[in-house]
Amino acid sequence: MTPQPNPAAGAAVKAADRAHVFHSWSAQELIDPLAVAGAEGSYFWDYDGNRYLDFTSGLVYTNIGYQHPKIVAAIQEQAATLSTFAPAFAVEARSEAARLIAERTPGDLDKIFFTNGGADAVEHAVRMARLHTGRPKVLSAYRSYHGGTQQAVNITGDPRRWANDSGTSGVVRFWAPFLYRSRFYAETEEQECARALEHLETTIAFEGPATIAAIILETIPGTAGIMVPPPGYLAGVREICDKYGIVFILDEVMAGFGRTGEWFAADLFDVVPDLMTFAKGVNSGYVPLGGVAISGEIASTFGKRPYPGGLTYSGHPLACAAAVATINVMAEEGVVENAARLGAEVVEPALRELAERHPSVGEVRGVGMFWALDLVKNKETREPLVPYNAAGEANAPMAAFAAAAKAGGVWPFVNMNRTHIVPPCNVTEAELKEGLAALDAALSVADEHTE
Predict the structure, then answer these.
(1) Sign of the alpha-carbon torsion through 74, 78, 83, 88
(2) Distance, CA of 431 to CA of 40 (rounded, Å)
(3) SS3 of 292, please?
(4) Are 137 and 170 in contact (CB under 8 A)?
(5) pLDDT tens-digit readout, 291-338
(6) CB-hemisphere CA count at 13 Å for 207?
(7) What is the reported pTM?
(8) Strands (E), 270-334
(9) DSSP for 194-237?
């Protein structure tokens, strides 16, 4: 794992990227992508020999780190045996991946529809809900992210929706609970929960319950800020959905497969949705894969009625072989338990200690290997360190923080006024302490922008 500098090769990679690769979510002339030479475990490195501890897990998906030898071997073996096959056939890797996933999903979510990633999993979950109910509308939270495809981005709450919003997608948004920045003037979690549920039910009443197919929520919102819902909220949403015959969809694309110290975040709240989307950690991102776990009732809707949807690469053998190997490795190596233990014993105490010492840290929140620091200008007013959706000079404080973290050998996850601590779920205690020390130093840079 010792990086071997090769600046000439790095320059060639960078030149080809800049000439031909069109990057997502970016102004193409304003970005400067790092040329990556290799990765292993919790680290990656560039062609100049600089090594970074990855506190982003890629895009929060390398739940068992980079280049795990058992996953690599499983992909190689599958490629040599049956590298691809159409989705209409029964294939061992696909069947076994579905079985292993269904064993771990809550309740009777025992049917698995495979997709290529999280966004199209959301697309199909919404389609299933609309066809199952015969209703057009979907309710989603403002603080949310559900994917970049057309329906998924319309359901999304964050600013990436704005330029893509059709305004005719049948989506209605509501405020989910978030006590630190409450929209309900709540002072306690109990108040926040009760008022958020009342707000949701009122929204349903005014939209017309008979027009609403589904409510979709990230079990724990990820990109929007890792906001763990208060006790009772998700159970309350489940009750509301049952009351009005609305399909309850939980998006576990980011929170699933060990990220929260449970196989699925739903297990933390003892709630069972009707549909659950997944991707990312299902195979640590080694080969693109996502899916929808489907309840018995919704699956029966399509027992003798064809489901009008599919993908050429649904349940691709290489992706499914990677999923089988990943789930087995997570079970054998105690990866889920590792995330829970180190989250509680190392990350949370360290982050709360940072919050005590750094004026820029307004709130610490999270669970497992899924944490966020809400950075502020002023702890009393809770004014964010940078404005909502800041860019350019307005985002300079967060850019300075990120640069300081990278200079300290940690690649940080930065979004708006937050940094997320989301390393691989099999990260070691020593690696965590190394990364947290680098964040401690970087937060001193953020502190310079406080009042």
Answers:
(1) negative
(2) 13
(3) strand
(4) yes
(5) 999 999 999 999 999 999 999 999 999 999 999 999 999 999 999 999
(6) 25
(7) 0.95
(8) 275-278, 290-294
(9) HHHHHHHHHHHHHH-GGGEEEEEEESS-TTTT--PPPTTHHHHH
